[in-house]
Amino acid sequence: MVTLRLTFERQLKTLGSDLLRLAELVETQLVEAVRALQQRDFQAARRIEAFDATINNLRYEIEEQCYTLLALQQPNASDLRRIVAAVSIATNLERMGDHAAGIARIALRTEALAASIHLPLFTDMARLAAENLHQAMIAFEKHDAQLARQVVQRDDEVDALHKRVYDYLIKTMMENAAAVEYATLLLWVSHDIERFADRVSNICERIIYIVTGTLFEPRSSTAL
Prior knowledge:
Number of strands: 0
Helix content: over 70%
Largest sheet: none
Mean pLDDT: 93
Number of domains: 1
CATH class: Mainly Alpha
Strand content: under 5%
Low-confidence stretches: 220-224
Order of helices and strands: HHHHHH
Radius of gyration: 19 Å
Number of helices: 6
CATH superfamily: Phosphate transport system protein phou homolog 2, domain 2
CATH topology: Methane Monooxygenase Hydroxylase, Chain G, domain 1
């Protein structure tokens, strides 16, 4: 019985390590996609778009691990929360990878456009979103519900930058008809970064669930 438990613990540890690896890859994808857009590095954008298939495959591998553990082991309540939450976390990470790949695809669409708009705020947004994901996965690794709550609260900073970008781009389109197509694409970039950050909050909800056994939506400081 002790041997079975030790084997199960090793499997759970492997599952956790794979989630951390997936998060690290997704974090890099976002930062590099925004960099490719800002620097008009279309070769890098193509690599980022292609790498999304690797993200997808790792997510499916993690899900398969979870289903195998549920089918072949007898997890207690705490273990069950970890496994079920891992499926949700992996799904959110894969979709965050989709947002990064979406930015890379938008970068490629700008290649044929004559107009160009450089928005340094995108770098700040991506940095904040990536740092929030990094902190969320530290909370996951350390089972730190309080840190997870703090990460959710920091999502407001990304939302504020998204609002600034939106207002700037709408104003730009009103004042310069030639920039409308480019500005419209950049609105989608801002949306992708903002949604990436929102999914970090989803992950934090699951971390809190793992630690406390309570499901709720800590979407604002009033929920904390």
